[in-house]
Design brief:
This protein has 153 residues and is α+β, with helices and mostly antiparallel strands. It is built from four helices and six strands. The protein starts with a strand and ends in a 16-residue tail after the last helix. Bound molecules: coenzyme A.
Length: 153
């Protein structure tokens, strides 16, 4: 049976933190558990709406997630409207190329529509070819490529 895609709830926190740590290993699973506390409860990050969608097997195991929020603007998008933004997108390796990523993204786009969005945006690292192929396959057009910098003040 194909996995169900649904909004994450409080009881998903530990499993979801593990998936987030697989995508964003710069933070520990414990840090992800802490960060998820507020997100799952308030469905916001800072002042902006942000939700976690999960793909769940019949057994209750979570095998993917997509974090989607609103941004006031995104490169290449019409500045008059807030934009639905894919902040994180991950499917466990053993379950890739089975349409789960597609299902998660479709649910994220549906959510963004309910928020009044008329555009979605996302990003991928320059070296992440799989992510770029997947975005393109699902209707996302490349806007530009950039290098980010920082400096401590
Ligand atoms: C990107 C990711 C979420 C896609 O999940 P997935 O469940 O494998 O995606 P799907 O099976 O729904 O595939 C959707 C489309 O992407 C394309 N695609 C997926 N994997 C691909 C690959 N390895 N090579 C080329 N195209 C691929 C396919 O064209 C597919 O369309 P199709 O079904 O019409 O063939 C998954 O590869 C992943 O978790 N990667 C590691 C984390 C990551 O890079 N996340 C993105 C960060 S920006």
């Amino acid at each position: 049976m194909s996995p169900v895609v649904r909004l994450a709830r409080e009881g998903d926190r530990e499993q979801l933190a593990g998936l987030r740590a697989a995508l964003w290993p710069e933070s520990s699973t414990e840090d992800h558990v802490k960060e998820l506390l507020g997100i799952l409860e308030r469905k916001t990050f800072g002042t902006m709406p942000l939700i976690e969608l999960v793909a769940e097997e019949r057994s209750g195991r979570l095998i993917g997630f997509l974090e989607v929020g609103l941004r006031s603007h995104a490169d290449g998008c019409e500045p008059a409207h807030a934009v639905g933004y894919v902040e994180g997108w991950y499917v466990v390796e053993s379950h890739r190329k089975q349409g789960i990523g597609r299902k998660l993204l479709a649910a994220a786009e549906d959510w963004a529509r309910t928020q009044g969005c008329v555009e979605m945006a996302s990003d991928a690292l320059v070296g992440n070819d799989v992510s770029q192929r997947a975005h393109e396959a699902l209707g996302y057009a490349e806007v530009d490529r950039c290098v980010r910098y920082r400096k401590t003040l």
